[in-house]
Specification:
The complex is a heterodimer of chains A (485) and B (323).
Chain A (H helix, E strand, L loop, with lengths): L1 E5 L10 E6 L5 E7 L6 H5 L7 H4 L8 H15 L6 H33 L10 H8 L1 H22 L8 E2 L2 E2 L5 H30 L2 H8 L8 E6 L11 E5 L5 E5 L8 E4 L8 E4 L16 E2 L1 H8 L6 H14 L9 H21 L19 E8 L2 E9 L5 E7 L1 H4 L1 H15 L7 H12 L5 H4 L10 E6 L4 E6 L1
Parallel strand pairs in A: 1-16, 2-15, 6-11
Antiparallel strand pairs in A: 1-15, 2-3, 4-5, 6-7, 7-8, 9-10, 12-13, 13-14, 15-16
Helix pairs in contact in A: 4-5, 4-6, 4-7, 4-11, 5-6, 6-7, 7-11, 9-11, 10-11, 13-14
Chain B lengths: L6 E7 L5 H7 L4 H8 E5 L8 H6 L5 E7 L2 E3 H13 E7 L1 H5 L11 H10 L15 E4 L2 E4 L3 E6 L9 E3 L6 H13 L65 H4 L17 H10 L10 H5 L5 H5 L17
Parallel strand pairs in B: 1-2, 1-3, 3-5, 5-9
Antiparallel strand pairs in B: 4-8, 6-7
Classes of the chains: A alpha+beta (485), B alpha/beta (323).
Chain lengths: 485, 323
């Protein structure tokens, strides 16, 4: 059997390895997306005071540090049964929205856009941010960089640090903002709303205006019928910071809606021996293997998962783009995997609009930023929507707040089964004669790059990363071709 | 294009979280200066490349490689050795490469125990047949392999020679910019230098010392009101400032949270945890009716506090593994 190996998967956060096995006819028999790293956070968080964990868990992932910081901080609220004052909640959500905006700039301009804007068939050396700047122009490149820099500075002002913030405390935050700072932040956020609309414009002009790109997006190669999950507010609109978890089935019908504290009734994980990453699935549907459809417990999270699992966006401009996306794709839910990129841009706009709403709210610069915990800790759950999906932190402690056990289900991990499915499907449709060219392999990579997987996150459980090897093996198991990326 | 040959730069990650790669993009407009004079020939996080390209380079062909992440498995070690061979200058970038970083806290346990916890004992993991990831798996279609996870997290200099150290979890954007400037201009400091400040963090912290330092009890920052003006140590909150290298601009104390030591020890200090313990021991002053032991019993996790980022590089290194 032929085996194609892609190692490392580049332009992804974390390490990864893909093995594609071909049969005698040169067709794809199976594909394995391995995560070869493990970090053991669960174990070494034990014995630490829980109050320190929101400064430790961000090191699970330097791409998603705010998500881990916020999930852990909310977990501490729940652990100590302390309610943050309204100002603290608004500050947290505002900062988190700015983080979400910042993160989506990295994804769109540094990681995803090179495929579309520079072209998936362009030489490898040009499929990166530099190639992108060459294509769209240095002026635009400078604007992207200026906005990116600006959002970093705001995050540093609020959280102490852009990467690995230190600001959250059970019951609040360690520092507030002045009225004047709030107004300056609002001014920036107005620019972010413009920038988000501008980025969507680029996507429309360079991607959606070209029929060949739209054909790929709505085509059969990148499609998966699955369940979808995301946090929603009381109106079932997408929310990144708080709310209930909603799951819809492949027909878009509500399958479950539950409080984050009840997540163990709904999610289970299975261990397969060929990878360090576990596979979560819907407990009430069950594990049926790496397959699609209503009978399979695989579900998808992150931008497309969130939009599919919701009734829309809570801000007006994002709602408009949401409607436009579903009109183009033929309704909700959309099963088109490459639509993750479009959904991410809808969320870019939502993040900016939401941050602006909160920055315009005078209560966000209020004086009361903390309630000091008084209760004895024992168990807490914290959930947020990380850019790459629903993120669960669950701590158990002794009465002194020393951690006894930690359970983490991380954003990218939720999508692992779906990513494996998408890779196999793309490989099967694209590799017919056992001789894939480098462009075809890049198109296989696009199948999982759409998820923007963050394998550093996913392997919270020892050391983390995502270079990739695709090995193509023949029916005798001999390596026919090894493609390293 | 100038006639002058461009420099060749690489960026690699081993056991890391990716934060060091992300901060490299925080040099922002400097990226444009950098690509003017240098080609980034190897950066798996952000660019398409092949390991084979690296193997085919001549020895010393890369002018500089920034290496982030600790060494935790055989793949990391192999890549570290290969990159060392191909690079004229190798920089340990970030706390994990310099001191082992937060993953170094794993050195209190073994890989086996960490694996058991993650795959057999987590409440949402259904695993009645006790399946664990295996180094070699015979799938129906063929064989699959995974690298072995080591018991001990190592720093980069414990496996290969390192020319410079840029500490921080992650290093700040400003420090990263200075390192890039030094690389571009060729004005690198003497070999072996740490590119950061050379004093203790307290030197750049603007919190005010109001009294003579006297710790009568230890308080956790989440359990007490914090005076934003006053030195945190004076308020009974353990801060790693006295035993930590300056250079970050006191980012954490600026938002009223104590330093946890990610820049490692300052010049002249071998063991950061021992230095911090020494600094604290010298100011602990039990109130009437209490002993030193009483005060220290309020310190709930000395190892995780004093050696938060530097256990793998400390005199302790790791807990003993019983045979």
């Amino acid at each position: 059997m032929n085996k194609i190996t892609i190692d490392p998967v580049t332009r992804l956060e974390g390490h990864g390895k893909i093995d594609i096995f071909l049969n005698d006819g040169g067709e794809v028999e199976n594909a394995y997306f391995q995560v070869p790293e493990f970090r053991g956070f669960e174990r070494f968080c034990e014995g630490r005071p829980a109050g320190e964990l929101n400064r430790i868990t961000p090191r699970i992932c330097g791409v998603c540090p705010w998500a881990h910081h916020m999930a852990s901080t909310k977990c501490l609220d729940d652990l100590y049964k302390v309610e943050p004052p309204p100002t603290a909640k608004k500050l947290r959500e505002m900062a988190y929205s700015i983080y979400s905006f910042y993160d989506k700039i990295i994804n769109f301009y540094f990681l995803a856009a090179p495929d579309f804007v520079v072209g998936s068939d362009a030489p490898a050396a040009e499929r990166n941010i530099v190639g992108l700047i060459n294509r769209v122009g240095v002026e635009i490149g400078k604007k992207v960089i200026a906005t990116y820099k600006d959002s970093q500075k705001l995050l540093e002002l609020l959280g102490g640090r852009t990467i690995h913030p230190v600001w959250g405390l059970p019951g609040g935050v360690s520092k507030g903002i002045t009225d004047e700072q709030r107004k300056e932040i609002a001014e920036k956020c107005r620019e972010y709303v413009d920038f988000a609309q501008y980025s969507i414009g680029i996507f429309h002009d360079l991607v959606l205006a070209e029929k060949k790109h739209v054909d790929v997006i709505v085509g059969d190669v990148y499609n998966m019928k699955s369940y979808y999950m995301g946090l929603v507010d009381e109106d079932n609109k997408v929310n990144f910071y708080d709310g209930h978890i909603r799951v819809v089935d492949p027909d878009g019908k509500e399958f479950a809606r539950f409080h984050p504290r009840d997540y163990m009734d709904h999610i289970e994980e299975i261990v397969l021996p060929w990878t360090y990453l576990k596979f979560p699935y819907l407990k009430k549907v069950g594990w049926k293997g790496i397959v699609d459809g209503k009978e399979s417990g695989l579900y998808r999270v992150a931008p497309l998962g969130r939009l599919n699992a919701s009734d829309g966006m809570a801000t007006p401009l994002a709602q408009k783009e949401h409607d436009r996306m579903y009109d183009t794709l033929g309704g909700k839910p959309a099963h088109h995997t490459l639509a993750f990129h479009w959904a991410r841009l809808v969320e870019l706009l939502y993040s900016a609009e939401r941050a602006l709403e909160l920055a315009e709210d005078a209560e966000t610069s209020g004086a009361c930023i903390r309630n000091v915990p008084e209760n004895t800790p024992s168990e807490g759950v914290g959930v947020v929507e990380a850019p790459r999906g629903t993120l669960f932190h669950h701590f158990w402690t002794d009465e002194n707040g020393i951690v006894r056990k930690v359970n983490l289900i991380v954003a990218t991990g939720n999508n692992y089964g779906a990513m494996c499915y998408s890779i196999k499907r793309a490989a099967s449709k694209l590799i017919k004669d056992g001789k894939p060219g480098p462009e075809l392999l890049n198109m296989v990579e696009m199948a999982f790059r759409a998820y923007d997987p963050c394998l550093a996150c996913a392997t919270h459980t020892l050391p983390g990363h995502t270079p990739l090897i695709v090995t193509i093996r023949d029916s005798k198991g001999e390596a026919l071709e090894v493609v390293e990326r | 294009m100038s006639d002058k040959a461009k420099m060749k730069i690489g960026i690699y990650w081993a056991a890391s979280c990716g934060g060091c790669d992300v901060v490299t993009t925080h040099i922002n407009e400097k990226i444009l200066d950098l690509i003017e004079v240098a080609d980034i020939v190897f950066w798996p996080c952000a660019m398409d490349f092949k390991y084979d390209d690296l193997r085919q380079m001549a020895d010393g062909e890369m002018d500089v490689c920034l290496f982030n992440g600790a060494i935790r498995n055989s793949d990391h070690e192999e890549l570290a050795e290969l990159i060392r061979k191909k690079s004229k200058v190798l920089i340990a970038f970030g706390s994990c490469a310099c001191f082992g970083g937060i993953p170094g806290l794993s050195n209190v346990t073994t890989a086996e125990e960490s694996i058991r916890r993650a795959y057999l004992e987590e409440p949402t993991t259904l695993n009645p047949e006790k399946v664990l990831p295996r180094l070699e798996v015979r799938a129906p279609e063929g064989d699959l392999t995974l690298p072995r996870i080591w018991d001990t997290v190592h720093t980069l200099k414990q496996v290969v020679d390192v020319d410079y150290f840029v500490p921080g979890c992650p290093p700040t954007a400003e420090l990263t910019g200075s390192a890039v400037d030094a690389i571009i201009s060729g004005k690198l400091p003497p070999a072996g230098s740490v590119i950061a400040g050379n004093k203790a963090l307290c030197d750049e912290c603007d919190k005010v010392k109001k009294n003579e330092m006297r710790m009568i009890e230890f308080k956790a920052p989440w359990e007490t009101e914090i005076d934003p003006e006053q030195c945190l140590m004076e308020q009974g909150i353990v801060c790693s400032g006295p035993a930590t290298r300056s250079g970050c601009g006191a980012q954490c104390t600026k938002v009223n949270m104590p330093c946890r030591g990610c820049f490692g020890p300052p010049d002249g200090v071998e063991d950061q945890g021992a230095a911090l313990l020494g600094a604290i021991a010298s100011v602990v002053s039990p109130p009437a009716g209490k002993s030193i032991d009483d005060v220290f019993s309020g310190l709930r996790d000395p190892l995780g506090l004093f050696y938060r980022f530097s256990l793998a590089d400390s005199m302790l290194r790791r807990t003993k593994i019983s045979k």
